[in-house]
Fold:
Amino acid sequence: MTLMETEHTTWTKQFINGEWVEGSGEKIVENKNPYTGEVIATWRSSNKEDIDQAYEAAQKSSVKWKKSLPAVKEGILRKVSALMVERKEEIVKLLITESGSTRIKAEAEFASAKRIVDEAASFPYRMKGEILPSNTPGKENRVVREPKGVIGVIGPWNFPLHLCLRSVAPAIALGNGVVIKPASDTPITAGWLIADLFEQAGLPEGVLNVVAGSGSEIGDYFVAHPVPKVISFTGSTKVGQGIGKLAGEHLKETALELGGNNAMVVLEDADIERAAASAVFGKFLHQGQICMALNRIIVHADIYDTFVESFVAKTKKIQTGDPADAQTLVGPLIREKEVERLLDLIKGAKAEGARLLLGGTSKGSVLEPTVLADVKPEQHIVQQELFGPVAVLMKAKDEQEAVRLANDTPYGLSGSVFTGNLDRGYQVAQQIESGMVHVNDQSVNDEAHVMFGGEKSSGIGRFGGDWAIEKFTRTRWISIQHQYRDYPGVQ
Structure:
Protein backbone atom coordinates (compact mmCIF):
# COMPACT_ATOMS: atom_id res chain seq x y z
CA MET A 1 0.00 0.00 0.00
CA THR A 2 1.41 3.41 -0.94
CA LEU A 3 1.58 6.39 1.35
CA MET A 4 -0.96 8.20 -0.79
CA GLU A 5 -3.39 5.33 -0.30
CA THR A 6 -2.96 5.67 3.47
CA GLU A 7 -3.39 9.48 3.28
CA HIS A 8 0.08 10.19 4.66
CA THR A 9 -0.48 13.41 6.60
CA THR A 10 3.03 14.73 6.03
CA TRP A 11 2.20 15.24 2.35
CA THR A 12 0.22 18.35 3.37
CA LYS A 13 2.51 19.85 6.02
CA GLN A 14 5.79 21.74 6.24
CA PHE A 15 8.80 20.14 7.93
CA ILE A 16 10.51 22.55 10.32
CA ASN A 17 12.98 21.69 13.08
CA GLY A 18 12.06 18.02 13.01
CA GLU A 19 8.29 18.53 13.18
CA TRP A 20 5.53 18.23 10.59
CA VAL A 21 3.55 21.46 10.98
CA GLU A 22 0.76 23.25 9.17
CA GLY A 23 1.87 26.11 6.93
CA SER A 24 1.13 29.56 8.31
CA GLY A 25 0.23 31.24 5.01
CA GLU A 26 -3.28 32.21 3.96
CA LYS A 27 -3.21 30.46 0.58
CA ILE A 28 -4.60 26.93 0.18
CA VAL A 29 -2.93 25.03 -2.67
CA GLU A 30 -4.12 21.95 -4.54
CA ASN A 31 -1.61 19.34 -5.66
CA LYS A 32 -3.01 17.73 -8.84
CA ASN A 33 -2.23 14.68 -10.93
CA PRO A 34 -1.36 16.21 -14.34
CA TYR A 35 -2.75 13.22 -16.27
CA THR A 36 -6.11 12.71 -14.54
CA GLY A 37 -6.61 16.15 -13.00
CA GLU A 38 -7.34 14.42 -9.67
CA VAL A 39 -6.46 16.38 -6.52
CA ILE A 40 -3.72 14.44 -4.72
CA ALA A 41 -3.58 16.62 -1.63
CA THR A 42 -4.49 20.08 -0.38
CA TRP A 43 -1.97 22.05 1.65
CA ARG A 44 -1.57 25.46 3.28
CA SER A 45 1.39 27.43 1.97
CA SER A 46 4.26 28.73 4.06
CA ASN A 47 4.77 32.39 4.89
CA LYS A 48 7.77 34.51 5.88
CA GLU A 49 7.58 33.44 9.51
CA ASP A 50 7.81 29.78 8.46
CA ILE A 51 10.90 30.60 6.40
CA ASP A 52 12.45 32.40 9.37
CA GLN A 53 11.87 29.37 11.59
CA ALA A 54 13.22 26.94 8.99
CA TYR A 55 16.41 28.91 8.37
CA GLU A 56 16.96 29.49 12.09
CA ALA A 57 16.56 25.75 12.76
CA ALA A 58 19.01 24.88 9.98
CA GLN A 59 21.53 27.44 11.22
CA LYS A 60 21.38 26.28 14.84
CA SER A 61 21.53 22.56 14.05
CA SER A 62 24.33 22.93 11.49
CA VAL A 63 26.74 24.10 14.21
CA LYS A 64 26.63 20.67 15.82
CA TRP A 65 26.07 18.72 12.60
CA LYS A 66 29.26 19.94 10.96
CA LYS A 67 31.26 18.59 13.90
CA SER A 68 29.76 15.10 13.69
CA LEU A 69 32.13 12.32 12.66
CA PRO A 70 32.47 11.43 8.97
CA ALA A 71 31.12 7.97 9.75
CA VAL A 72 27.96 9.50 11.23
CA LYS A 73 27.31 11.60 8.13
CA GLU A 74 28.11 8.68 5.86
CA GLY A 75 25.79 6.45 7.85
CA ILE A 76 22.83 8.79 7.39
CA LEU A 77 23.36 8.88 3.62
CA ARG A 78 23.76 5.10 3.43
CA LYS A 79 20.52 4.69 5.36
CA VAL A 80 18.70 7.07 3.01
CA SER A 81 19.94 5.02 0.06
CA ALA A 82 18.75 1.79 1.67
CA LEU A 83 15.37 3.32 2.43
CA MET A 84 15.03 4.39 -1.17
CA VAL A 85 15.53 0.79 -2.26
CA GLU A 86 12.95 -0.41 0.28
CA ARG A 87 10.45 2.22 -0.84
CA LYS A 88 11.26 2.18 -4.56
CA GLU A 89 7.81 1.26 -5.85
CA GLU A 90 6.18 3.89 -3.66
CA ILE A 91 8.63 6.54 -4.87
CA VAL A 92 8.16 5.60 -8.54
CA LYS A 93 4.37 5.79 -8.15
CA LEU A 94 4.65 9.20 -6.49
CA LEU A 95 6.74 10.47 -9.43
CA ILE A 96 4.19 9.13 -11.90
CA THR A 97 1.24 10.55 -10.00
CA GLU A 98 2.59 13.95 -9.05
CA SER A 99 4.83 15.01 -11.96
CA GLY A 100 3.29 13.01 -14.81
CA SER A 101 6.45 10.95 -15.19
CA THR A 102 6.14 7.87 -17.33
CA ARG A 103 7.30 4.72 -15.59
CA ILE A 104 10.32 4.67 -17.93
CA LYS A 105 11.31 8.16 -16.79
CA ALA A 106 10.42 7.57 -13.13
CA GLU A 107 12.62 4.47 -12.99
CA ALA A 108 15.50 6.42 -14.53
CA GLU A 109 14.99 9.31 -12.13
CA PHE A 110 14.95 6.98 -9.14
CA ALA A 111 18.22 5.38 -10.24
CA SER A 112 19.90 8.76 -10.79
CA ALA A 113 18.70 10.09 -7.45
CA LYS A 114 19.97 7.03 -5.60
CA ARG A 115 23.38 7.35 -7.28
CA ILE A 116 23.60 10.93 -6.04
CA VAL A 117 22.96 9.81 -2.48
CA ASP A 118 25.53 7.01 -2.80
CA GLU A 119 28.12 9.42 -4.21
CA ALA A 120 27.43 11.98 -1.48
CA ALA A 121 27.97 9.33 1.21
CA SER A 122 31.68 9.44 0.37
CA PHE A 123 31.96 13.24 0.63
CA PRO A 124 32.72 13.46 4.38
CA TYR A 125 36.02 11.65 3.65
CA ARG A 126 36.85 13.84 0.63
CA MET A 127 37.02 17.25 2.34
CA LYS A 128 40.71 17.90 1.88
CA GLY A 129 42.79 20.66 3.43
CA GLU A 130 46.37 21.68 2.67
CA ILE A 131 49.54 22.69 4.47
CA LEU A 132 51.48 25.26 2.45
CA PRO A 133 55.02 26.60 2.94
CA SER A 134 55.72 30.08 4.25
CA ASN A 135 58.50 32.64 3.84
CA THR A 136 57.95 33.73 7.43
CA PRO A 137 60.20 31.80 9.84
CA GLY A 138 58.23 29.50 12.11
CA LYS A 139 54.89 29.95 10.30
CA GLU A 140 52.71 27.03 9.28
CA ASN A 141 50.03 27.79 6.67
CA ARG A 142 46.93 25.62 6.87
CA VAL A 143 44.12 25.84 4.32
CA VAL A 144 41.08 24.23 5.89
CA ARG A 145 37.89 23.12 4.14
CA GLU A 146 34.58 23.35 5.99
CA PRO A 147 30.84 23.53 5.27
CA LYS A 148 29.46 26.90 4.23
CA GLY A 149 26.65 26.81 6.79
CA VAL A 150 23.09 26.78 5.44
CA ILE A 151 22.05 26.06 1.84
CA GLY A 152 18.71 27.16 0.39
CA VAL A 153 17.46 24.79 -2.32
CA ILE A 154 14.69 25.73 -4.76
CA GLY A 155 13.60 22.58 -6.55
CA PRO A 156 11.98 22.05 -9.97
CA TRP A 157 8.93 20.03 -10.96
CA ASN A 158 10.29 18.07 -13.94
CA PHE A 159 12.85 15.83 -12.16
CA PRO A 160 11.79 16.78 -8.63
CA LEU A 161 13.47 14.04 -6.61
CA HIS A 162 16.67 13.83 -8.59
CA LEU A 163 17.32 17.54 -9.03
CA CYS A 164 16.57 18.40 -5.39
CA LEU A 165 18.70 15.57 -4.02
CA ARG A 166 21.50 16.74 -6.32
CA SER A 167 21.99 19.66 -3.93
CA VAL A 168 20.45 18.35 -0.70
CA ALA A 169 22.46 15.13 -0.35
CA PRO A 170 25.91 16.71 -0.95
CA ALA A 171 25.11 19.72 1.24
CA ILE A 172 24.08 17.53 4.18
CA ALA A 173 26.94 15.07 3.68
CA LEU A 174 29.39 17.98 3.87
CA GLY A 175 27.98 19.25 7.16
CA ASN A 176 25.58 22.00 6.07
CA GLY A 177 22.03 22.70 7.15
CA VAL A 178 19.44 22.80 4.35
CA VAL A 179 16.08 24.41 3.68
CA ILE A 180 14.11 23.25 0.62
CA LYS A 181 11.43 25.23 -1.18
CA PRO A 182 10.00 22.70 -3.65
CA ALA A 183 8.13 23.57 -6.83
CA SER A 184 4.44 24.12 -6.09
CA ASP A 185 3.49 21.50 -8.71
CA THR A 186 5.54 18.78 -6.97
CA PRO A 187 5.87 19.55 -3.24
CA ILE A 188 5.88 15.86 -2.32
CA THR A 189 8.68 14.48 -4.49
CA ALA A 190 10.73 17.70 -4.47
CA GLY A 191 10.47 18.25 -0.72
CA TRP A 192 8.38 16.31 1.75
CA LEU A 193 9.43 12.86 0.52
CA ILE A 194 13.08 13.87 0.86
CA ALA A 195 12.49 15.13 4.39
CA ASP A 196 10.64 11.91 5.23
CA LEU A 197 13.55 9.78 4.02
CA PHE A 198 16.16 11.74 5.99
CA GLU A 199 13.98 11.81 9.10
CA GLN A 200 13.52 8.04 8.90
CA ALA A 201 17.30 7.69 8.41
CA GLY A 202 17.93 9.46 11.72
CA LEU A 203 19.13 12.90 10.58
CA PRO A 204 19.21 15.23 13.62
CA GLU A 205 16.31 17.65 13.98
CA GLY A 206 16.65 20.93 12.17
CA VAL A 207 19.40 19.94 9.73
CA LEU A 208 16.85 19.57 6.92
CA ASN A 209 13.69 21.67 6.64
CA VAL A 210 10.99 22.09 3.98
CA VAL A 211 8.77 25.10 3.37
CA ALA A 212 6.33 25.23 0.47
CA GLY A 213 4.70 28.15 -1.31
CA SER A 214 4.63 29.93 -4.64
CA GLY A 215 7.75 31.76 -5.78
CA SER A 216 5.75 34.92 -6.41
CA GLU A 217 4.77 35.06 -2.73
CA ILE A 218 7.81 33.85 -0.79
CA GLY A 219 10.54 33.31 -3.40
CA ASP A 220 12.33 36.64 -2.98
CA TYR A 221 12.27 36.37 0.81
CA PHE A 222 13.64 32.82 0.63
CA VAL A 223 16.57 34.00 -1.53
CA ALA A 224 17.35 37.28 0.23
CA HIS A 225 17.14 35.86 3.77
CA PRO A 226 20.39 36.59 5.65
CA VAL A 227 20.96 32.99 6.85
CA PRO A 228 21.65 30.93 3.69
CA LYS A 229 25.14 31.23 2.23
CA VAL A 230 24.26 29.55 -1.07
CA ILE A 231 21.02 29.44 -3.07
CA SER A 232 20.77 26.41 -5.34
CA PHE A 233 18.13 26.76 -8.04
CA THR A 234 17.09 24.60 -10.97
CA GLY A 235 14.52 26.07 -13.34
CA SER A 236 13.92 28.61 -16.07
CA THR A 237 16.51 31.13 -17.18
CA LYS A 238 14.12 34.04 -16.55
CA VAL A 239 13.55 33.06 -12.91
CA GLY A 240 17.23 32.20 -12.49
CA GLN A 241 18.24 35.65 -13.69
CA GLY A 242 15.99 37.18 -11.04
CA ILE A 243 17.47 34.96 -8.35
CA GLY A 244 21.01 35.78 -9.48
CA LYS A 245 20.29 39.50 -9.38
CA LEU A 246 18.72 39.35 -5.93
CA ALA A 247 21.46 37.11 -4.55
CA GLY A 248 24.09 39.45 -5.98
CA GLU A 249 22.57 42.40 -4.16
CA HIS A 250 23.09 40.48 -0.92
CA LEU A 251 26.52 39.12 -1.93
CA LYS A 252 25.12 35.61 -1.75
CA GLU A 253 26.54 32.73 -3.76
CA THR A 254 24.38 30.82 -6.22
CA ALA A 255 24.33 27.51 -8.06
CA LEU A 256 22.02 28.01 -11.05
CA GLU A 257 21.07 25.28 -13.51
CA LEU A 258 18.78 26.97 -16.00
CA GLY A 259 17.23 26.51 -19.43
CA GLY A 260 18.57 24.85 -22.53
CA ASN A 261 18.10 24.92 -26.29
CA ASN A 262 20.15 21.83 -26.93
CA ALA A 263 21.19 20.63 -30.36
CA MET A 264 22.16 17.28 -31.84
CA VAL A 265 24.51 17.57 -34.83
CA VAL A 266 24.28 14.58 -37.19
CA LEU A 267 27.20 14.49 -39.63
CA GLU A 268 27.18 12.80 -43.03
CA ASP A 269 29.23 9.80 -41.85
CA ALA A 270 26.90 8.96 -38.93
CA ASP A 271 25.01 5.70 -38.51
CA ILE A 272 21.60 7.11 -39.44
CA GLU A 273 19.46 4.49 -37.70
CA ARG A 274 21.44 4.78 -34.46
CA ALA A 275 21.39 8.55 -34.61
CA ALA A 276 17.64 8.64 -35.22
CA ALA A 277 16.93 6.27 -32.33
CA SER A 278 19.12 8.35 -30.03
CA ALA A 279 17.41 11.55 -31.15
CA VAL A 280 13.92 10.13 -30.50
CA PHE A 281 14.87 9.23 -26.93
CA GLY A 282 16.67 12.52 -26.27
CA LYS A 283 13.73 14.50 -27.61
CA PHE A 284 10.72 12.69 -26.16
CA LEU A 285 11.79 11.31 -22.77
CA HIS A 286 9.50 12.87 -20.14
CA GLN A 287 7.60 14.59 -22.94
CA GLY A 288 10.67 16.73 -23.64
CA GLN A 289 10.25 18.46 -20.26
CA ILE A 290 13.95 18.21 -19.46
CA CYS A 291 16.49 21.02 -19.44
CA MET A 292 18.86 18.72 -21.37
CA ALA A 293 16.27 17.52 -23.92
CA LEU A 294 16.99 17.96 -27.60
CA ASN A 295 15.31 21.04 -29.03
CA ARG A 296 17.04 21.18 -32.41
CA ILE A 297 18.24 18.26 -34.51
CA ILE A 298 20.69 19.58 -37.11
CA VAL A 299 21.41 17.12 -39.93
CA HIS A 300 23.99 17.24 -42.74
CA ALA A 301 22.31 17.85 -46.10
CA ASP A 302 23.74 14.65 -47.61
CA ILE A 303 21.74 12.42 -45.24
CA TYR A 304 18.93 14.80 -44.23
CA ASP A 305 16.06 13.14 -46.12
CA THR A 306 17.04 9.63 -45.01
CA PHE A 307 17.41 10.75 -41.39
CA VAL A 308 14.02 12.51 -41.42
CA GLU A 309 12.35 9.39 -42.77
CA SER A 310 13.91 7.22 -40.06
CA PHE A 311 13.18 9.71 -37.27
CA VAL A 312 9.51 10.01 -38.23
CA ALA A 313 9.13 6.22 -38.56
CA LYS A 314 10.56 5.67 -35.07
CA THR A 315 8.51 8.50 -33.57
CA LYS A 316 5.30 6.99 -34.95
CA LYS A 317 5.95 3.87 -32.86
CA ILE A 318 6.10 5.79 -29.56
CA GLN A 319 3.35 4.87 -27.13
CA THR A 320 1.60 7.86 -25.58
CA GLY A 321 -0.98 8.37 -22.87
CA ASP A 322 -1.18 6.85 -19.40
CA PRO A 323 2.19 7.39 -17.68
CA ALA A 324 1.60 4.41 -15.40
CA ASP A 325 1.71 2.04 -18.40
CA ALA A 326 5.22 0.58 -18.55
CA GLN A 327 5.35 0.97 -22.35
CA THR A 328 4.42 4.67 -22.45
CA LEU A 329 7.22 7.05 -23.43
CA VAL A 330 5.20 10.27 -23.80
CA GLY A 331 2.71 11.07 -21.05
CA PRO A 332 1.08 14.31 -19.92
CA LEU A 333 2.59 17.75 -19.77
CA ILE A 334 2.64 19.24 -16.29
CA ARG A 335 -0.31 21.56 -17.08
CA GLU A 336 -2.80 21.86 -19.93
CA LYS A 337 -1.76 25.47 -20.53
CA GLU A 338 1.64 24.09 -21.60
CA VAL A 339 -0.16 22.17 -24.35
CA GLU A 340 -1.77 25.41 -25.52
CA ARG A 341 1.61 27.18 -25.53
CA LEU A 342 3.20 24.48 -27.67
CA LEU A 343 0.27 24.30 -30.09
CA ASP A 344 0.68 28.05 -30.65
CA LEU A 345 4.39 27.56 -31.36
CA ILE A 346 3.62 24.74 -33.82
CA LYS A 347 1.05 26.92 -35.57
CA GLY A 348 3.56 29.76 -35.83
CA ALA A 349 6.28 27.47 -37.20
CA LYS A 350 3.95 26.19 -39.91
CA ALA A 351 3.06 29.75 -40.86
CA GLU A 352 6.77 30.50 -41.23
CA GLY A 353 7.29 27.57 -43.60
CA ALA A 354 8.06 24.53 -41.46
CA ARG A 355 6.59 21.19 -42.57
CA LEU A 356 4.47 19.37 -39.99
CA LEU A 357 5.28 15.70 -40.54
CA LEU A 358 3.67 14.23 -37.45
CA GLY A 359 1.55 15.19 -34.46
CA GLY A 360 0.35 18.69 -33.74
CA THR A 361 -2.73 17.41 -31.90
CA SER A 362 -3.54 16.88 -28.23
CA LYS A 363 -5.91 15.10 -25.90
CA GLY A 364 -6.21 16.71 -22.51
CA SER A 365 -2.72 17.28 -21.15
CA VAL A 366 -1.11 14.84 -23.62
CA LEU A 367 0.43 16.41 -26.73
CA GLU A 368 1.12 13.86 -29.44
CA PRO A 369 4.81 13.58 -30.42
CA THR A 370 5.25 16.28 -33.04
CA VAL A 371 7.86 16.56 -35.80
CA LEU A 372 8.58 19.78 -37.69
CA ALA A 373 10.98 19.56 -40.66
CA ASP A 374 12.78 22.12 -42.82
CA VAL A 375 12.83 24.61 -39.97
CA LYS A 376 14.97 27.69 -40.68
CA PRO A 377 17.28 29.34 -38.14
CA GLU A 378 15.39 32.64 -38.30
CA GLN A 379 12.08 31.08 -37.27
CA HIS A 380 10.69 31.96 -33.86
CA ILE A 381 10.46 28.36 -32.62
CA VAL A 382 14.21 27.79 -33.06
CA GLN A 383 15.17 30.23 -30.30
CA GLN A 384 12.70 28.83 -27.74
CA GLU A 385 13.27 26.31 -24.99
CA LEU A 386 10.37 24.11 -26.06
CA PHE A 387 10.02 21.94 -22.94
CA GLY A 388 7.60 19.65 -24.71
CA PRO A 389 7.33 16.79 -27.24
CA VAL A 390 8.04 18.89 -30.33
CA ALA A 391 11.04 17.98 -32.49
CA VAL A 392 12.63 20.64 -34.72
CA LEU A 393 14.62 19.23 -37.67
CA MET A 394 17.08 21.53 -39.49
CA LYS A 395 19.34 21.00 -42.50
CA ALA A 396 23.02 22.06 -42.60
CA LYS A 397 25.04 22.17 -45.80
CA ASP A 398 28.27 21.10 -44.07
CA GLU A 399 29.98 20.58 -40.71
CA GLN A 400 30.84 24.26 -40.29
CA GLU A 401 27.25 25.37 -40.78
CA ALA A 402 26.03 22.66 -38.41
CA VAL A 403 28.33 23.96 -35.66
CA ARG A 404 27.27 27.54 -36.36
CA LEU A 405 23.60 26.60 -36.11
CA ALA A 406 24.19 24.66 -32.90
CA ASN A 407 25.84 27.71 -31.33
CA ASP A 408 23.20 30.15 -32.61
CA THR A 409 21.38 30.39 -29.28
CA PRO A 410 21.82 32.24 -25.99
CA TYR A 411 21.74 28.89 -24.20
CA GLY A 412 24.57 26.42 -23.67
CA LEU A 413 23.60 23.49 -21.45
CA SER A 414 24.03 20.16 -23.25
CA GLY A 415 24.56 18.91 -26.79
CA SER A 416 25.25 15.93 -29.00
CA VAL A 417 27.31 14.99 -32.05
CA PHE A 418 26.79 11.86 -34.16
CA THR A 419 29.56 10.71 -36.49
CA GLY A 420 31.34 7.58 -37.70
CA ASN A 421 34.70 9.08 -36.67
CA LEU A 422 35.12 9.53 -32.91
CA ASP A 423 38.13 11.84 -33.24
CA ARG A 424 36.10 14.06 -35.55
CA GLY A 425 33.24 13.94 -33.08
CA TYR A 426 35.53 15.12 -30.27
CA GLN A 427 36.82 17.98 -32.40
CA VAL A 428 33.30 19.09 -33.26
CA ALA A 429 32.24 18.75 -29.62
CA GLN A 430 35.03 21.15 -28.64
CA GLN A 431 33.51 23.78 -30.96
CA ILE A 432 30.02 23.59 -29.47
CA GLU A 433 29.45 26.25 -26.82
CA SER A 434 27.81 24.26 -24.05
CA GLY A 435 28.81 22.88 -20.69
CA MET A 436 28.28 19.28 -21.79
CA VAL A 437 28.51 17.56 -25.18
CA HIS A 438 28.04 13.83 -25.86
CA VAL A 439 29.52 12.11 -28.91
CA ASN A 440 27.37 9.35 -30.43
CA ASP A 441 24.76 9.77 -27.70
CA GLN A 442 21.82 12.07 -27.09
CA SER A 443 21.94 15.10 -24.81
CA VAL A 444 20.18 13.75 -21.69
CA ASN A 445 23.02 12.44 -19.54
CA ASP A 446 23.73 12.86 -15.83
CA GLU A 447 26.23 10.91 -13.71
CA ALA A 448 26.62 11.64 -10.02
CA HIS A 449 30.44 11.69 -10.04
CA VAL A 450 30.82 13.87 -13.15
CA MET A 451 30.45 17.65 -13.40
CA PHE A 452 27.07 18.97 -14.53
CA GLY A 453 26.40 22.53 -15.63
CA GLY A 454 25.95 24.94 -18.50
CA GLU A 455 27.38 28.00 -20.20
CA LYS A 456 25.89 31.32 -21.30
CA SER A 457 22.21 31.65 -20.26
CA SER A 458 22.07 28.03 -19.09
CA GLY A 459 23.47 28.74 -15.67
CA ILE A 460 26.33 29.35 -13.29
CA GLY A 461 28.26 26.78 -11.32
CA ARG A 462 28.74 23.04 -11.46
CA PHE A 463 27.06 20.12 -9.72
CA GLY A 464 28.28 16.56 -9.18
CA GLY A 465 31.29 14.84 -7.58
CA ASP A 466 34.21 17.04 -6.58
CA TRP A 467 32.43 20.04 -8.10
CA ALA A 468 29.61 19.68 -5.56
CA ILE A 469 32.18 19.51 -2.76
CA GLU A 470 33.66 22.78 -4.03
CA LYS A 471 30.23 24.42 -4.25
CA PHE A 472 28.96 23.52 -0.79
CA THR A 473 32.19 24.03 1.20
CA ARG A 474 34.59 26.93 1.67
CA THR A 475 38.29 27.16 2.27
CA ARG A 476 39.95 29.35 4.89
CA TRP A 477 43.56 30.18 5.66
CA ILE A 478 44.60 29.59 9.25
CA SER A 479 48.28 30.16 10.01
CA ILE A 480 50.14 29.04 13.12
CA GLN A 481 53.22 30.93 14.26
CA HIS A 482 55.33 28.27 16.00
CA GLN A 483 57.95 30.80 17.09
CA TYR A 484 57.30 34.42 17.86
CA ARG A 485 58.10 36.91 15.11
CA ASP A 486 60.15 40.06 15.25
CA TYR A 487 58.46 42.98 13.49
CA PRO A 488 60.49 45.78 11.84
CA GLY A 489 60.23 49.04 13.73
CA VAL A 490 58.74 47.42 16.82
CA GLN A 491 60.88 47.34 20.00
